[in-house]
Amino acid sequence: MAHVTESPLKRAKVASPGPAGDRAALRRGGMRRVGTELPRLTGPILGKQGLGEAKLLSEWAAIVGTTLAGHCWPVKLAFPRGQRQEGTLRLRVAPGVAVEIQHREPVILERINAYFGYRAVARLAIVQGPPPPRSEVPPTPPRPLLPSEQAALRERLDGVEDPALRDALERLGSAIIGSG
Fold first, then answer.
1. Does residue 153 have a pLDDT over 80?
2. 83/99 Cα distance (integer angstroms)
3. In a domain, 82, yes or no
4. Is residue 139 part of a domain?
5. What's the first-to-final CA gap in the chain, in angstroms?
6. pLDDT value at position 16?
7. Could you tell me if 90 and 117 lie in one domain?
């Protein structure tokens, strides 16, 4: 009688999707979901700066407007102990603009709280100093895709059933192809 051995692939346990599966993949050194790793990587860095709300940094220009964003920058968001609302946002403000930012505080607070969807920030603490330098060269927008490029991209995305995901992937693909 011949001895039949099982394939190593059949014996290997497949990690279940979700956090437990991602932890198992982490222990094995395998691939992990980016979304599960980002909080672990960025949380300690942003938490030390008091900016647990990372999107506040990345979306700052969209929240307060490009003009104000060029003159002030969020440094730290501090909440009262045990709460996640009615916080104080410390802003680094360019010299000479502090008075204008102080007068615009109600508008800035309204925009920030509208962004968060609740009263996250109750007041601003202004610290004078230069904001981080911005790039002197504005980014160039991607070019419009040629009809053949657009058709090829749509063909590649035909297998994606979720319309929201398909639209997001199409925008990403258009930006990537149009930038190259």
1. yes
2. 30
3. yes
4. no
5. 61
6. 46
7. yes
